[in-house]
Design goal:
8 strands; six-stranded mixed beta sheet; alpha/beta; 41% strand; 157 residues; two-stranded antiparallel ribbon
């Protein structure tokens, strides 16, 4: 699994029914804290410890000092700094451009497995007390955000 975690002052996702973006299904917004892009890779399917690893990972996210204090230092854990998180599924995190000019997504996880892991990730964050909002897995979405800092973290499990 790979995550890009961004500290944001606002973020929004609009979910649409098709690629033409003609019919909006839902809109989710947060006004501060964290936007997470979440990707599942093919190698995640082979992990025997994936359930406990995901639980450890969300605990780590909860306790990591990712947010800026009023004095500008990054020293506040998510659990203390706020509780809104917007999570967006993103298979392109496993894209590779090593050969040629076309990006290869063959290392992204399969649809059914990745959807289950994504939903388990959302539930694990909710169980930690976060207010979790999300896009829709495998949907056409427009995501917008105002990044603080910019502060971006990339994590791999």
């Amino acid at each position: 699994m790979k995550l890009i975690i961004q500290s944001v002052s606002s973020a929004q996702v609009e979910v649409y029914s098709d690629e033409s973006y003609s019919e909006r299904i839902k809109t989710e917004k947060i006004w501060s804290w964290i936007l997470i892009y979440f990707g599942v890779g093919k190698t995640d399917e082979m992990r025997e410890d994936r359930k406990s690893a995901l639980e450890k990972f969300t605990t780590k996210i909860q306790t990591l000092k990712l947010l800026s204090s009023p004095n500008g230092k990054i020293e506040i854990p998510l659990a203390e700094g706020g509780n809104q998180i917007l999570v967006i599924s993103n298979f392109t995190l496993f894209g590779s451009y090593k050969n040629g000019t076309k990006i290869d997504f063959s290392q992204s996880g399969t649809f059914s497995f990745s959807k289950g892991v994504y939903e388990a990730f959302l539930q694990s964050l909710k169980a930690k007390g976060f207010e979790v909002k999300s896009g829709e897995f495998w949907a056409d979405m427009l995501v917008s955000s105002v990044n603080n800092g910019p502060i971006n973290y990339i994590f791999e499990l």
